[in-house]
UniProtKB/TrEMBL annotation:
InterPro entries: Inosine/uridine_hydrolase_dom, IUN_hydrolase, Ribo_hydro-like
GO molecular function per UniProt: hydrolase activity, hydrolyzing N-glycosyl compounds
Protein name per its UniProtKB record: Purine nucleosidase
Entries under SUPFAM superfamilies matching the protein: Nucleoside hydrolase (SSF53590)
Record lineage: Bacteria, Bacillati, Actinomycetota, Actinomycetes, Streptosporangiales
Residues annotated as domain Inosine/uridine-preferring nucleoside hydrolase: 4-298
Highest taxon, organism lineage: Bacteria
Length: 309
């Protein structure tokens, strides 16, 4: 199995991505690192601990990282995620997070296992950018970096133009795309257009009636309600999709290399991702997933939530 580190702003979809990393046979989840994003930082830490407990993996180290973006103020997504755990009174595990900062942990782990660690970044890219600055060898030491962020059809979710993770810390995203990682990008619209969990797919998950499917239903409820309130007929799972595409590469039907960069100056377009198909004449710096096996991804989630840790 791949040595995996998940960098997350743990709420709702991030929780299911963590479950996948913790339980999939192709993954050896060696650390979870926390970055400022979806909901208040302390809550995100608790959500990660709760999720690892639900997965029966309380021994996985959790490292707290950047509590705000590089230059900007934190932007909450609590209107989408609530507290990130469905407002449910989960028992919060008493264990403390690691003393080591997330950025130090990322750099150390990649140095200890050069070319063997895959990092999945499903929040703003603050920790990943800081790690690349802290250790210029970090991008090379990491085998691959899977990023959930951006939108390549012009449809944003936090603004008309921008996807949340890139919007929150656009400077960090720029640093990451120019840092020399072997990067794969999973965009917001990929989930929306191809991998939506509609009513029938959600019913199939509920019908499992396992501890993890019940966890899913509870934690997913606020984002599902939000998605429906903005006219999306189902539930979006970009973060779990990102982990799924790393662990089961056969789920990728088509991908293409692009030069990717992120807008930091725009008045209307802060955090907008540019996917250049050749106009700039620059070397591609990322693989962008363009088509997936949606039924396969749903099966991936069913297999995951059917497990009894
Ligand atoms: C991304 O933003 C967050 O709200 C989700 O967890 C996901 O990582 C989608 O734009
Ligand atoms: Ca996220």
């Amino acid at each position: 199995p791949t040595r995996l580190v998940i960098d997350t702003d743990t709420a709702a979809d991030d929780c299911f991505a963590l479950l996948a990393g913790a339980l999939h046979p192709a993954a050896d989840l060696i650390a979870v690192t926390l970055v400022a994003g979806n909901v208040g930082f302390a809550r995100q830490v608790e959500n990660a601990l709760i999720t690892l407990d639900a997965a029966g993996r309380p021994e996985v180290p959790v490292h707290a990282g950047a509590e705000r973006p590089l230059l900007r103020e934190w932007v909450s997504a609590e209107n989408v995620h609530g507290d990130g755990r469905g407002g449910h009174a989960f028992a919060v595990p008493e264990r403390a997070v690691e003393a080591e900062h997330a950025v130090d942990a990322l750099v150390r782990i990649a140095r200890e296992h050069p070319g063997e660690v895959d990092v999945v970044a499903i929040g703003p890219l603050t920790n990943i950018a800081l790690a690349a600055r802290r250790d210029p060898a970090f991008p090379r030491n990491v085998r691959s970096l899977y990023v959930m962020g951006g939108s390549n059809n012009g449809r944003g979710n936090i603004t008309a133009a921008a996807e949340y993770n890139f919007y929150v810390d656009p400077e960090a995203a720029r640093i990451v795309f120019s840092a020399g990682f072997d990067t794969t990008v999973v965009t917001w619209n990929l989930t929306l257009d191809q991998a939506l969990f509609d009513t029938a797919r959600l019913a199939a998950i509920s019908a499992l009636d396992t501890p993890l499917s019940r966890f899913f239903d509870l934690v997913n409820a606020p984002t599902l309600a939000f998605d429906r309130s903005v006219g999306i007929d189902g539930s979006t799972h970009p973060d779990s999709l990102t982990v799924a595409l790393l662990l089961e590469p056969g789920l990728v039907r088509r991908s293409r290399r692009y030069f990717v960069d992120v807008e930091t100056q725009g008045e209307l377009t802060r955090g907008y991702a540019v996917f250049d198909w050749g106009v700039f004449g620059k070397e591609p710096n990322a693989t962008v997933v363009e088509e997936i096996d949606a039924a396969g991804f749903h099966r991936f989630m069913l297999d995951l939530l059917a497990r009894r840790p």
